[in-house]
Amino acid sequence: MAITGTYTILMRRGDFSDFVPEKLRTGEWAVVLNDDPNVTDGRALYHCFASGIVKRIATIDDMEEVFGDMTEDIVSDLTNAVNAAVELANQATQYANNAGNEANNQAELAEAAANTANAVASDLTNRLNNGEFDGPVGPQGAPGNDGANGVVTTLEGQIAFQVRDGRLYAIYYDGTTPPDVYIDENGHLKWDIQ
Fold this sequence. Notes:
Elements: E1 11-15, E2 29-34, E3 44-50, E4 53-57, H1 60-129, E5 159-164, E6 167-172, E7 180-183, E8 189-192
Parallel strand pairs: 1-2
Antiparallel strand pairs: 2-3, 3-4, 5-6, 7-8
């Protein structure tokens, strides 16, 4: 490859007080021999990329000097930051484990309640099918006195219980929610009122 044209290697040198980046040409080097406030020994090397745009070039000695002083602080800061992140992660893990354990406990309780309800329903169905709730009609009671005339008023949510043919019925109005009535494991009639 042939190189054509004339190229000149340009380099300036002098005190930092004489260093004017705007006077450098693109590609030119500037060597500051003393008094550069950016380095401890006052000596620095700059490279021009365009008029007024220069970068200071750091040597290995410069980097060791700068980072050598900062190494302990950097390691300490990083160690503290990592330890704090690990602690937060441990706390989040513990919270998730606790929440998972509580969810499992609640699921087990719900399953136990469902199993109990199914057992009661199965027992009631078997007892009903075996005729345990069918009994002979009892003797007719003595006639009562006629009471005073009354007024019947319906209220929303009003229900009544009635025994027909030896079976207990809950009577409620069409379009309303049936009452939460059931027979518990001891054979007692229960009604959960909200």
